């Protein structure tokens, strides 16, 4: 029996247009496909309208308005221009922390996307 092939990570978002603009315009990701409640970006990341995905997955959507990001997932990116990325991101996002050198020697910063998901940008090792 063959193993399944991993295609992408799909994150729930409250507002697909807002999330798409953030990942495309702020983080510079390329939109590869856009179909209704779904947007596939380069590098294996996809966005899906949360309410629609809740219905598809669970048969119903949550009635509350809690943010989808719940401190349990980190979307990790790398950039050779970490200072420029920090400057760009800090004008539109809530920073968790500025650039810090981690115990393993890599410089990173972390912030929240519009849905509260943790995003980390680090320098290539």
TrEMBL record:
The family database entries (InterPro entries) matched by this protein are listed as: Glyas_Bleomycin-R_OHBP_Dase, Glyoxalase-like_dom, VOC_core
Give the range the annotation lists for the signal sequence.
none
Task: Give start and end of each VOC domain.
Answer: 3-124
Q: Which Gene3D superfamilies does this chain map to?
A: 2,3-Dihydroxybiphenyl 1,2-Dioxygenase, domain 1
Q: Name one Pfam family in it.
A: Glyoxalase_2
Specify the superkingdom.
Answer: Bacteria
Q: What is this protein called?
A: Bleomycin resistance protein
* Source lineage: Bacteria, Pseudomonadati, Pseudomonadota, Alphaproteobacteria, Hyphomicrobiales
């Amino acid at each position: 029996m063959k193993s399944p092939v991993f295609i992408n990570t799909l994150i729930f978002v409250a507002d697909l247009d807002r999330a798409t603009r953030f990942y495309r315009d702020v983080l510079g990701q390329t939109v590869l496909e856009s179909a209704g409640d779904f947007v596939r970006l380069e590098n294996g990341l996809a966005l899906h309208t949360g309410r629609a995905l809740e219905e598809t997955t669970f048969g119903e959507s949550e009635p509350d308005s809690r943010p989808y990001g719940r401190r349990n997932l980190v979307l990790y990116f790398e950039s050779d221009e970490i200072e420029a990325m920090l400057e760009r991101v800090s004008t539109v996002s809530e920073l968790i922390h500025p650039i810090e050198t981690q115990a393993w020697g890599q410089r990173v910063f972390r912030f929240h996307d519009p849905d509260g998901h943790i995003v980390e940008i680090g320098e290539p090792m």
